[in-house]
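For the sake of transparency, this paper describes our internal protein records without simplification. An entry from our holdings is shown next, in its original layout:
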Amino acid sequence: MRARAAASVALAGIIAVMSAGCAFVTPQATQEINDVVDGASGRVGDVAIENALAITEDGETVNVVFSVVNESDDNVRLDISYDEGSVQLSEQVWVDAGEQKTIGVPGDRQVIFEGVDAPLGSLMPVYVQYGDAEGNELMLPVLDGRLDEYRDLLPTPQPTVDPSPTPTNTPTPFPTPDGDTEDSPGDETDTEEE
């Protein structure tokens, strides 16, 4: 009778382990945190990059849009670069200590790369780094302005600064002994006498 009781207990234990076996070998989905955004995310040292996107109209001029959180106690100059073949572009963004902000949105500075090869639907490699921290390459989804939420994020042309006019050498009149003024020496203005 003891053997039967022991066999029943062993069989019940095996059934309990086998029916709960999935819980032992399958990780819980709630323990994994996934991005629920359209863009790429990553970290560089104490700086978090979130929801990074490449927004373009023609695949050649791109506005890099992302949120950044500086969790350090120092101001950071974040270097954002694109390096594909003969095209090497780089921009810098300052992020103050403890600051959280979004780059590339209306009313803020845009990080625009021109002359890139970023067709719609592709992934654009962008390298992010600052100071001595190890950099991180993010693969940004390339989107356009067809959706309302991205329409205002298309690259806007940066204002061009007209070069300042070149100063001309205008002769300065100086007084003559009789009180009249005449042009300074070296002025080659011809006057005709009648």
